[in-house]
Design goal:
By secondary structure, this protein is an alpha/beta fold. The protein has one domain: Rossmann fold (3-Layer(aba) Sandwich), CATH 3.40.50.2020. It is built from six helices and 15 strands. Strands 1, 4, 5, 6, 7, 8, 10 and 12 form an eight-stranded mixed sheet that branches. Strands 9-11-13 form a three-stranded parallel sheet. α1 packs antiparallel against α2 and α2 packs across α3.
């Protein structure tokens, strides 16, 4: 079974509380999403493989390290877009590939509408980015797309998860570890996470 990492880092706890506040305006909301995403990515990438690399410092030649694995960031459109920039600042050579999914409001199932992945995988590690792991439908569908693409190492990085979404992800993909800033109580009748923060996409883009 996959491992669920719910961060208790003081910076994440502080920033997440500001993110949840309904009075936080879209500009600040976007900044907080970027900052929290970067902190979570730092935790999620602690086990990336590195290889030795020789170079010269101003004083001597030495052996350091560089990343061995090519990393792909997979934001689930549209809310996942806000998480990319913060992580990209840490890993500027990471590739970004987009997968578009929306939740059918009647069935609550994900519907894929955009996928431009090349025929063969160009990365060895993928981070699925989606602020909210609610029902888990979009996350599990995206993971399945990536596995069909041929990626072997996948992680999910999100801001807030519900027990229902975590269970769905672990059931469908027990090999994918989950990194979250918080695990909330439950989903309401509209499949929104409670207490949550509302609609992450609407709050980022000012469309609520």
């Amino acid at each position: 079974m996959s491992t669920v990492h719910a961060s208790n880092h003081p910076l994440i706890l502080h920033k997440l509380s500001r993110l949840r506040n309904k009075n936080t305006e879209p500009k600040k909301f976007r900044e907080l999403v970027r900052e929290i995403s970067a902190l979570l990515a730092y935790e999620a990438t602690a086990d990336l493989a590195v290889m030795p690399r020789e170079f010269d410092t101003p004083l001597a030649r030495m052996t350091g390290y560089e990343l061995k694995e090519k990393i792909g960031l997979i934001p689930i459109l549209r809310a996942g877009l806000g998480m990319v920039e913060g992580i990209w600042e840490l890993m500027p050579v990471a590739e970004v590939w987009h997968i578009g999914l929306y939740r059918d409001e009647h069935t609550l199932r994900p519907v894929e509408y955009y996928n431009k992945l090349p025929l063969e995988p160009t990365v060895s590690v993928c981070l699925i980015l989606d602020p909210m792991l609610a029902t888990g439908g979009s996350a599990t569908a995206t993971a399945q797309v990536l596995k069909r693409w041929g990626v072997k190492k996948i992680k999910f990085v999100g801001l807030i998860g519900a027990p229902e979404g975590i269970k769905a992800m672990q059931t469908a993909h027990p090999d994918i570890d989950i990194y979250l800033a918080a695990i909330d109580d439950h989903l309401n009748e509209r499949a929104y996470i409670v207490p949550g923060l509302g609609d992450a996409g609407d709050r980022q883009f000012g469309t609520g």
